[in-house]
Amino acid sequence: MTHGAPCKVLIVDDSAVVRQMLSEILDSDPGIEVVGTAADPLLAREKIKRLAPDVITLDVEMPRMDGLAFLENLMRLHPLPVVMISSLTERGADTTLQALALGAVDFVSKPKLDVARGLQGYADEIIAKVKMAARSRVRPLARPNPPRITLGAVAPVAPRSIQFRTTDRLIAIGASAGGTEALRVVLEGMPADAPAVVMTQHLPATFSTPFAERLDRHSAMSVREATDGEAVLPGHAYLPPGGKHLRIIRDGARWRCRIDDGPPVNRHKPAVDVLFRSVAESAGANAIGAILTGMGDDGARGLLDLKNAGAPTLVQDEATSVVWGMPGAAFKLGAAEEMVPLERIAERLMALARG
């Protein structure tokens, strides 16, 4: 995509109504040009060759075609930024998480189409995400790894004998676009007895349970949705439950989760700033803060609060981020003490925890 030229989009969807609606929404923005639409993968393949789009929008759940199989072939043979159009059902959540694992940049959840106001919010979101996708980094899909047999096969980063007390360390991580996979990579690198991890990932409410289950399968730590008032324990990683903020409070010698149903912050609920500020307050210099790939600037000020409270802070580097919005904003604000490539973040967090 040449600088200043509109970003060229191909819409792949088996519904003529959706193709028409997406075309109108995207064409309404002068920075975007819809160069074509396709009702199935065969047409899409042919149009990708002929039209050379910068971004594809793809509905994964199509009755007459397998969107995931199409995406997997595309990412292996002709990697392109893809924005998924997904439904908010549990099944839609699962399919979308698989699509993100295959290399889709981001997703937009379809509103109930009869709500005109819902559609306007949806229009703004899809325009922003398509433009962001055009600037994002897409990696060719490697052959899938052989199935993991047991968690015992994960090389522990720290000697197993280390016993952490609750007052030792609390690792706080925030992420957005590209973060579902980045968090998986980080948690895969953490040993079973790592310090407690508290996380906020921007996701629709219905996605939180399948996402927690997915991370739990990939990590030696126990990953779960937090419940209000539960104690924060080493070896455990906590995510906010669907569409609510997660805060950490101090209770004597230990930390507890507080589920907060307050208003969105930085247009997000859960918001990274809410988590980080609470961790700065209740854990201070015992905390470690990290911001992974993501669009926007949520978490930047919260990371600065953590740094000012004496906590070591880091952000994912630009080269390994799908979108360097959130980490970049935190870095420019002076909130991050270091920039670390994704595959080294787990090891760095453990080194800081031991230090």
Automatic annotation (TrEMBL):
EC numbers: 3.1.1.61, 3.5.1.44
Residues covered by the Response regulatory domain: 8-125
Gene3D superfamilies: 3.40.50.2300, Methylesterase CheB, C-terminal domain
Compartment annotation: Cytoplasm
GO biological process: chemotaxis
MF terms in GO: phosphorelay response regulator activity; protein-glutamate methylesterase activity; protein-glutamine glutaminase activity
Root EC class: hydrolase
SUPFAM superfamilies tied to this protein: CheY-like (SSF52172), Methylesterase CheB, C-terminal domain (SSF52738)
Classification via Pfam families: CheB_methylest, Response_reg
4-aspartylphosphate: residues carrying this PTM: D59
Keyword Transcription: no
Domain (CheB-type methylesterase) ranges: 164-355
Keywords carried by this UniProt record: Chemotaxis, Cytoplasm, Hydrolase, Phosphoprotein
InterPro entries: CheB-like, CheB_C, CheY-like_superfamily, Sig_transdc_resp-reg_Me-estase, Sig_transdc_resp-reg_receiver
Modification(s) after translation: Phosphorylated by CheA. Phosphorylation of the N-terminal regulatory domain activates the methylesterase activity.
Record field: catalytic activity: [protein]-L-glutamate 5-O-methyl ester + H2O = L-glutamyl-[protein] + methanol + H(+); L-glutaminyl-[protein] + H2O = L-glutamyl-[protein] + NH4(+)
Domain comment in the entry: Contains a C-terminal catalytic domain, and an N-terminal region which modulates catalytic activity.
Entry function: Involved in chemotaxis. Part of a chemotaxis signal transduction system that modulates chemotaxis in response to various stimuli. Catalyzes the demethylation of specific methylglutamate residues introduced into the chemoreceptors (methyl-accepting chemotaxis proteins or MCP) by CheR. Also mediates the irreversible deamidation of specific glutamine residues to glutamic acid.
Homology family: Belongs to the CheB family.
Protein name: Protein-glutamate methylesterase/protein-glutamine glutaminase
